[in-house]
TrEMBL record:
GO cellular component labels: cytoplasm
UniProt source species: Caldinitratiruptor microaerophilus
General function of this protein: Cell wall formation. Adds enolpyruvyl to UDP-N-acetylglucosamine.
Annotated protein name in UniProt: UDP-N-acetylglucosamine 1-carboxyvinyltransferase
2-(S-cysteinyl)pyruvic acid O-phosphothioketal sites (modified residues): C118
Amino acid sequence: MEKFVIRGGRRLSGRTHANGAKNSALPIITAAALASQGESILENVPDYTDIRDLCDILRALGAEIEEVEPGTLRVRAAELSGHVAPYELARKLRGSTYVMGLLLARLGRGEVACPGGCDIGARPVDFHLKGFKALGAEVEIERGSMIARKVQLRGNRFYVDRASFGTTINMMITASLAPGTTVLENAAREPEVVDLANFLNSMGARVRGAGTETIRIEGVKRLRGARHEIIPDRLETGTFLIAGALTGGDVTVEGCIPEHLGTVIAKLREAGMDVEVGLDTLRCRGRRPIQPADVETQVYPGFPTDLQSPWVTLMSVADGVSVVTETIFENRFGFTNELIRLGAQIKVDRNSAIIRGVGRLTGAPVEARELRGGVALCLAGLVAEGTTEVHGVRFIDRGYHRIEEKLRSLGADIERVRA
Ligand SMILES: CC(=O)N[C@H]1[C@@H](OP(=O)(O)OP(=O)(O)OC[C@H]2O[C@@H](n3ccc(=O)[nH]c3=O)[C@H](O)[C@@H]2O)O[C@H](CO)[C@@H](O)[C@@H]1O
Ligand SMILES: C=C(OP(=O)(O)O)C(=O)O
């Protein structure tokens, strides 16, 4: 068990480089195992624990995955040797749902534990199952797993409820090898969907329309390996920009795609921050006072739910009252109980948090229970007087690589110690 020990009060300033996107890397590594010919070289793969767990699942199913150099994976999967994903691994992460899409596409059957991931709501898999069924699969939940029996897939028209990100991804993976045409309506439009489509197309798939709400996939007989560079992580980038804003600092994130953060940039400016947009850089200079800026999370291109928690931390020291509304996950304000220990004044009313900005936060031991809420507590520790201990670092490691080193390089006083 590890914890972060943070001594607050330092302005963050300097430059940091964006990692590859977790939510792109998970589907793309899985999709690489769709290829029965050749190998894929995947670059800019972030070293997050979720990624390692996914690779272990795929290896257990017969894929060969090696790290040829830091951040670059070689994936070969001429044949898959098994159709049952190791239960204890698959239940750890949400991204393991894509392994079902892969198994159905390659083997026509599969068994994958109902996924885990951040505890931010019920997070069922009913949309995924409905999607698989629309493609001809017989799939049920039994003994804690999604189980698909031997099936013959065929393309179909499918409406994606709530523009679900994961369902859109899974349908793209499965339909790429399903004979006929699949049309996804109300598809997710996140940049990671486009990244997956680009990779699939370079493998020989025929995916059109990714990035719009209608995606059309013509199934092909086989796919071959390809080279691909994962897009930068807009959520990690946004986290560092918010850290710059919060500490009154001057933080530049290099190697990002500013267009992927349009709403976040607009909201930072509304909060009074000075945001400079470069070709592949974003610079946020923190200004005082922090203006209250209401946020409502939305599917892309709206404000990302994954940055809601860091935003709440920023608003907790703003000069006035703000309202943050969560529309995607019904239980994503759990971390505010811990933020309150540091002195934040937050009332959660149904799916909104009403935040009365306070002049100061003071350090205390707090507990991270999920990824983004955990990082929001670390950010709070950066501005809290005295020492904040954030326990539950393993949740943060699911989507940030040694975040303490990046924060330290910007001037933060933070260390990882055994709890
Ligand atoms: C690994 C990964 O990429 N995770 C991301 C993905 O999660 P994930 O793919 O789980 O998110 P979805 O877009 O599918 O979820 C949207 C909403 O639909 C509900 N739902 C979803 C599927 C389903 O079968 N039934 C159902 O009811 C969910 O509980 C949620 O309330 O998109 C979220 C929304 O951008 C991000 O916060 C997560 O970081
Ligand atoms: C919710 C998240 O991840 P997951 O879906 O993997 O739990 C996240 O990245 O914020």
